[in-house]
């Protein structure tokens, strides 16, 4: 499962989007439960926002059960994700993500793409609490051999994913997008600690 990723470098065009958090800090080890940056359409225009990684629909009573991941294979059927899939789609920008492999002793790997930023398909929700409205997200994942990886979208696919008028059939086809070629390198075990968030997370093995 893609339980961690990093966003420590971004473009000026991303930083100048409406809603981009003024205090956005670089992160090398984002984990479920953290506040993460996400991108969505507001009035047909691209906006940035910050939300909790763990989806909290307005009807959810037990926030400890907020899912951080949504399986692409069942996204359109699951009550937890069905409405958000149709109406509240977003993207998680990232410089790369982590994967743990191995039988007896799992080793962390760092995976990146050809471009400086990857974009993961995701869903967002708003949870009202008094006079506050809290935003949250879930990452969409797909099968990758015996693992699960984020659903990665290219620029044209990102536009279709975010657009409010994209037909459901096209959205379902996006869920079948194969993982593009990725670069990878094996790392030391510093990133294993979800509370450790520093450039040393990327220390090679």
What characteristics describe this protein?
single chain; 205 residues; mainly beta; hypothetical protein yedk fold; 4 helices; 38% strand
Summarize the structure in words:
It is a single chain. The chain has 205 residues and is mainly beta. It has a single domain (4-202), classed as hypothetical protein yedk fold, CATH 3.90.1680.10. The chain has four helices and twelve strands, in the order βαββββαββββββααβ. The protein has helices spanning 12-15, 82-87, 155-162, 168-174; strands at 5-7, 27-30, 35-42, 45-53, 69-71, 89-94, 96-101, 107-112, 118-129, 132-144, 147-150, 183-186. A hairpin with a 2-residue loop joins strand 10 and strand 11. It starts with a strand and ends in a 19-residue tail after the last strand. The model has no long low-confidence stretch (mean pLDDT 94).
Low-confidence stretches: none
CATH level-3 fold name: hypothetical protein yedk fold
3D shape: globular
How many helical elements?
4
Considering the protein shown, what is the CATH homologous superfamily?
Answer: SOS response associated peptidase-like
Work out the radius of gyration. Answer: 16 Å
In percent, how helical is the residue content?
A: 10-25%
Which structural category fits the helices and strands?
Answer: mainly beta
Number of domains: 1
Instruction: List the secondary-structure elements in sequence, H or E.
Output: EHEEEEHEEEEEEHHE
How many β-strands, per DSSP? 12
